[in-house]
Amino acid sequence: MASSIYTHYPWVSRPLIANAPMADFAGARLATSVTMAGGLGFIGSAMNAGALSTELEKAKSLLSSSQIAISSTLPIGVGFLIFAEKLENVVAVIAQHRPAVIWLSCPPESQDFAIWAKAMRTASPESRIWIQISGVAAAVEVAQLCAPDVLVLQAADAGGHGRSPGAGLVSLIPESRDELDAAGFSKIPVIGAGGVGDGRGVAAALACGADGVLMGTAFLASIEVDLPAKEYQEAILEAVDGGVNTVRGTIFDDIRAKIIWPTRYDGRALTSPSYQDYLDGVGLHELKKKYADSITGSDKGFGGERRAVIWAGSAVGLVKEVKAAGDIVRELRETSKAAFDRACSKF
């Protein structure tokens, strides 16, 4: 197991637990709460460099009252959707704030990873580059292209958007680890993401060869997450049987006014009346109209029929209670160790 993650991020407790850099949802409050609990907190960028800079200033202020040292880099990460960002704007923000981690994902072409990684390293040489991919061949290709400090392996069970098709963590992590090792990249740590909802999932990912775990859906039930409406969180808490009641597809983007995602990316969300109508053969024009009408209400479409898109991973059925993000991190750490102990007792 690569141990550099604990050298590079000295405030992190074992095992490494990070929140996903969910655009619009993961701001300074969530990121700093995760970091202050011994995890690695991420802010998600949403195509607005000015807003991101404001969140980073807020994060610095929040962390100044903690016992975590702020030295050459700010002890949080920032995540970027490459296809949606202007590189020159991002470079300026990174050079100013120097986050500990720069997360890159969703490029139109794989070569864009190399362009962005080079620019980020120039802007903030001490920041670490994390790159998210969804396949074994992609892991080796990206390792060869730009030598990332960490690879995030996103499984098909992840909520929100990802490259399609994909695999589950229990096959994606071991095979990627084997192929990376065989190609001479054994020192690149891998982080598992997608379908992890509690400490048992954390333990499983680590047993498969991950050096840490990243989670999104679990933090949708945090106090600090920034959601568009309270009904969004209520839907997350009510969801059950996540493998059945979430689904991946492009329909969740198709029904909205503007499609921005590159080809071969789709998203996992809670099933909804719009999705059922789609299965029943209702035309896209009518689906768009129903969606547009629903989001004009005070609940923004997340209440009532819930035609607004509620992104969530297949582990959503394990999320039952709203908690402080720091408590989520600490509980995951403790329960993952307990899960390991139980597993070992069966040998």
Automatic annotation (TrEMBL):
<dbReference type="Pfam" id="PF03060">
    <property type="entry name" value="NMO"/>
</dbReference>
<keyword id="KW-0285">Flavoprotein</keyword>
<keyword id="KW-0288">FMN</keyword>
<keyword id="KW-0560">Oxidoreductase</keyword>
<dbReference type="InterPro" id="IPR013785">
    <property type="entry name" value="Aldolase_TIM"/>
</dbReference>
<dbReference type="InterPro" id="IPR004136">
    <property type="entry name" value="NMO"/>
</dbReference>
<protein>
    <submittedName>
        <fullName>Uncharacterized protein</fullName>
    </submittedName>
</protein>
<dbReference type="GO" id="GO:0018580">
    <property type="term" value="F:nitronate monooxygenase activity"/>
</dbReference>
